[in-house]
Specification:
This protein is an all-alpha fold. The chain is built from four helices and no strands.
């Protein structure tokens, strides 16, 4: 059985995590009071960050891992979900420590 760990898309996981953090931070703080249809908000969050992150690419990589090992695929999937949740929580709570 071939080693499946070389199939883990580390760079893609990191880019998606950073994209979630930046989008959450922008929407929670800098763009919070902007109209949801504001062109700048749409350009930054949907356009730029949507193009930066690639969850469809992640799923293609997960399909490759699935064919090698189901357990490894589930492990990478859980890591991707947890890193996204953690990045989102960091983006939401970044400015809460004001005293």
């Amino acid at each position: 059985m071939p080693d499946w760990t070389h199939q883990i898309p580390w760079v893609l996981l990191a880019i998606n995590t950073v994209g979630v953090f930046v989008a959450t931070d922008l929407l929670r703080h800098r763009l919070k009071h902007h109209d949801p249809n504001d062109p700048m908000r749409l350009l930054l969050v949907t356009g730029f960050l949507g193009g930066l992150t690639s969850y469809s690419g992640l799923f293609a990589n997960l399909a490759e891992i699935w064919h090698l090992t189901i357990g490894g695929c589930l492990l990478v999937t859980a890591g991707a979900i947890l890193s996204g949740l953690f990045a989102g929580m960091l983006g939401l709570g970044r400015h809460r420590r004001k005293t």
